[in-house]
Amino acid sequence: MAKNIQAIRGMNDYLPKDTALWQRIEGTLKKVLDGYGYSEIRLPIVEQTPLFKRAIGEVTDVVEKEMYTFDDRNGDSLTLRPEGTAGCVRAGIEHGLLYNQEQRLWYIGPMFRYERPQKGRYRQFHQLGAEVFGLHGPDIDAELILLTARWWKALGIAEHVKLELNSIGSLEARANYRNALVGFLEQHVDVLDEDCKRRMYRNPLRVLDSKNPEVQALLNDAPRLSEYLDEASRAHFTGLCELLAQAGIPYTINECLVRGLDYYNRTVFEWVTTSLGAQGTVCAGGRYDSLVEQLGGRAVPAVGFAMGLERLVLLVQALNPDFTAPPTIDVYLISSGAGAQRAAMQLAERVRDVLPQLKLMTNYGGGNFKKQITRADKWGACVALILGENEVAAQQVVVKDLRSGEQETLAQSETAARLAQMLS
Ligand code: ATP
Ligand code: MG
């Protein structure tokens, strides 16, 4: 017998028992975005490889070891998108969306990274991201954070995510700091692990990210990025902190928060949780005022974030049972006999014409009355419509309230009106 072909490691199927929850969560997220006037942008899943190398940075984990890159049949190097910002900026430049105007955009879809699969970390995962172009003040940074905070409330997880915030300053401030940091690290190479030594010259700020406790202890004595901030970045950060305080959003300043992607400047933030084990960052973002220029456009200020939907779904599943109820229908249509089956299909369509919101499922594949009632219960229906040969002959239908057990016989033409009454 042939061996079964299985899905690729780290790339999940999303089964009907879970998709209802996904849809409910996505619906909630989109409603909030809509309420802030953000518009959806849909982007290709595959882009030219140099786009990601230039945007994300050659010496980041993502570009060094996580991208799915392959040659197209004509020899072009293509990459499955590991994140959404690069493609969004590319599209913005290509379609002239970025100059002399503002854009508040969002996207949703699969991203691909070759990582070790584990809970909350997959090779195909989904992000919902937002990107704003053309606004440079801290007010828009604050708006993005307020929008995400509103999401947590709507999803019932607000108590379980915490905001961490930092400013990484201008490119120049960071370069000065980098020199100071490397100078410090050089004096303490003995404490550094291999990973940190590798990062020390290529991308020294990532050493701040190290999970190694000895390195973290050493960093207590290291020069601080906040001491190197340029005046404008400092004012921007103070402005943001004030706006968040005014809005009642608690935050912690985490001076080691630097983010893995190279394009950030000034504001960086993460929403983190302790409810998911090691994969604690649910949503992460920041400002990237030089990326548009870096990708060939004219300088345009920009700020955005990306949220990992798998981690969000895990959180909602763990913390908000209200959201995870299985999908149900309103009405189950039962019939017995071939003639009644055909009549059932016609009746169902007539009811749908009048009640487009109604969730109506028609029984197919036969089964005796008892079996069909069991199916109705399994789907949580509160009403059954029943058609036998006699009802069909008389153009009638039996309407059974599955909660009370009461039933009545009606003319088929009255079905929709009666259902509307019963379900209102
Ligand atoms: P991490 O430190 O967890 O690797 P990251 O800094 O690489 O995250 P970003 O590139 O900022 O993550 O992506 C934003 C969000 O996307 C993350 O906070 C996380 O919720 C989600 N995410 C990133 N990589 C994965 C993955 N492999 N599987 C599932 N979700 C992911
Ligand atoms: Mg990562």
Question: Could you explain the architecture of this structure?
Answer:
This protein has two domains: 245 residues, BirA Bifunctional Protein, domain 2 (2-Layer Sandwich), CATH 3.30.930.10; 93 residues, Rossmann fold, CATH 3.40.50. A hairpin with an 8-residue loop joins β9 and β10. It has 15 helices and 16 strands. α1 packs antiparallel against α5 and α5 packs parallel to α9. The mean pLDDT is 94. Strands 1-5-6-11-10-9-7-8 form an eight-stranded mixed β-sheet. The protein has a five-stranded mixed β-sheet with strand order 13-12-14-15-16, with helices on both faces. It is an alpha+beta fold. The longest helix has 20 residues. It binds adenosine-5'-triphosphate and magnesium ion. Adenosine-5'-triphosphate binds next to β6, β10, β11 and α11. The site of magnesium ion has 2 residues, from loops. Its EC number is 6.1.1.21. It is found in: Cytoplasm. InterPro entries: aa-tRNA-synth_II (IPR006195), aa-tRNA-synth_II/BPL/LPL (IPR045864), Anticodon-bd (IPR004154), Anticodon-bd_dom_sf (IPR036621), His-tRNA-ligase (IPR015807), HisRS-like_core (IPR041715), HisRS/HisZ (IPR004516), HisRS_anticodon (IPR033656).
List the helices and strands and how they pair.
Elements lengths: L15 H20 L3 E2 L5 E3 H8 L4 H6 L1 E4 L5 E4 L4 H10 L8 E10 L11 E10 L4 H18 L6 E6 L3 H16 L7 H9 L10 H7 L11 H17 L4 E2 L11 E8 L8 E7 L3 H4 L7 E7 H11 L11 E5 L2 H17 L5 E3 L6 H10 L4 E5 L1 H5 L2 E6 L5 E5 L3 H9 L1
Parallel strand pairs: 1-5, 7-8, 12-13, 12-14
Antiparallel strand pairs: 2-4, 3-4, 5-6, 6-11, 7-9, 9-10, 10-11, 14-15, 15-16
Helix pairs in contact: 1-5, 5-9
Bound molecules: adenosine-5'-triphosphate and magnesium ion (MG).
Catalytic activity: tRNA(His) + L-histidine + ATP = L-histidyl-tRNA(His) + AMP + diphosphate + H(+)
Family: Belongs to the class-II aminoacyl-tRNA synthetase family.
Organism: Serratia symbiotica SCt-VLC
